[in-house]
Amino acid sequence: MTFTRRLFGFTVAGSALLASSVVFAQAGQTVKIAFIDPLSGPFANIGQNQLKSYQFSAEQFNKKNPAGVKFEMVAFDNKGSPQESLTVLKAAIDQGIRYVVQGNGSGAAAAISDAVSKHNERNPGKEVVFVNYAAVDPALTNERCSFWHFRLDADTSQKMEALTSFMKDQADIKNVYLINQNYAHGQQVSRYFKEIMARKKPDVKIVGDDLHPLGQVKDFAPFVAKIKASGADSIVTGNWGQDLTLLVKAAKDAGLNANFYTYYAITGGVPTALAQGVGGKVRVVAIGHNSLPGIVKWQDEFKKKFNDDWYTLQTFTAMAMLSEGMARAKSVDPVKVATAMSGMKFNGFNGEIEMRRTDHQLLQPLYITEWRKADAKNPYSVENTGFNFQQVREIPAFVAATPTSCQMKRPS
Fold first, then answer.
1. What is the tally of structural domains in the chain?
2. What count of Cα atoms within 13 Å lies in the side-chain half-sphere of residue 192?
3. 314 with 385, same domain?
């Protein structure tokens, strides 16, 4: 199926609805979506890129989507703080906004999810839906799951299942150093790697396990010195944004010869640091990559418009899921739309994916990619470096689909 057909066809059901003579009640309506993420502070570059990505995705879907609605993004700066997230969430709800997207930080995501659930219980008829596009704490779709919360990225455990499925087959991995940000996500990257790798390749040694403050370390040289002294051949990190950029720069300056296994080397600033040279290979586990057919057109258009890279592919997924859900619900009412999206199969940028009904975790293939020089087959230049992330393995959705303990309470 071509990208054009996916964008304008979505699913068979969606196509049939579009082809029918029925005019949906929601057609022509403007749906405001609150974007709540850091637009200032150490991770501002990530948040600003993702806001542009959502605005761009909305613009593309506003040309045509199965529900016939118009999406409008409304930006709120949460400064990366869970408490500030609650303040701006209230402001968004007071403005009558009923759909919220957030992704940078599982602490903020947990605060928003809990607040949305409480709000919906206390305010029937004014419900809010929370689309979590990047906060990957497994608790959000396990013990803290909510009917009103939908996660579009693979969670930490899913990504680690995929990453270790690749790493177990690499003969050169013997000594691994873990370095992560000291909050839920970073702690869980460390935990899941140790648990899953012990099962898949028990001879791998953990030669270091550091947690550092989120967004506060200005010089990673002391950490890199510890990594060198440990004799690590591989580094596993869930770091993102500034914390990964500075780690990569310190590794390069110290002449560290080790492979990096990451979740977020694709995020802004990191590729430029990688292009300066690193001692080993750099690999990423993610939901997509630069050379997927469904990505190419959009990333080129995004770069032409913003001179920036479109790396948060979930912005496409969010618009595809919401518009398909609204078409099936024949409404923009959050209760009806959430009910329609729960368990829904729909087409993303790379074929059919499923919003698992049990816990509202999206099930989709994952990819292991490697930082390499651009070539004829993979021509995209990330951050104008002449390099990109090229696929080395696809992990099917069923392999990465970790089980859930969610006991979801649904509205009567």
1. 2
2. 25
3. no
| Same-domain status, 189 and 311 | no
The DSSP call for residue 411 is -
Sign of CA dihedral 293, 296, 298, 299: positive
**CATH number (domain holding residue 223):** 3.40.50.2300
Distances (CA, A) of 231 to 175, 192, 256: 7, 22, 10
Residue 410 lies in a domain: no
Q: Are 17 and 150 part of one and the same domain?
A: yes
Residues 345, 377: one domain? no
Q: Which of 268, 261, 275, 226 is nearest to 243 (CA)?
A: 268
Tokens of 38: 């850091």
The rounded distance, in Å, linking the Cα atoms of 375 and 384 is: 14
Here the tokens at position 176 are 């691994």
Contact 246, 223 (CB under 8 A): no
- Shared domain for 235 and 343, answered yes or no, is no
Do strands 70-77 and 99-102 pair parallel, antiparallel, or not at all (unpaired)?
unpaired
303: in domain: yes
| Cα 147 from Cα 129, distance rounded (Å) | 9
Q: What is the pTM of this model?
A: 0.89
Same domain for 298 and 382: no
Q: Give residue 136's domain range.
A: 3-154+292-363
Token pair of 305, please? 């418009």
Rounded Cα gap, residues 380 and 293, in angstroms:
12
Report how far apart, in Å, the C-alpha atoms of 91 and of each of 84, 96, 112, 335, 411 are: 11, 9, 13, 21, 25
With bands split at pLDDT 50, 70 and 90, how would you rate the model's confidence at 392? very high
Q: Do 188 and 215 fall into the same domain?
A: yes
**Which residues neighbour 278 within 8 Å (Cβ) at sequence distance 6 or greater?**
248, 251, 252, 256, 260
Structural contact between residues 366 and 286, judged by C-beta atoms closer than 8 angstroms: yes
pLDDT digits (tens, 9 = 90+) for 265-316: 999 899 999 999 888 999 999 999 988 988 888 999 999 999 999 999 999 9
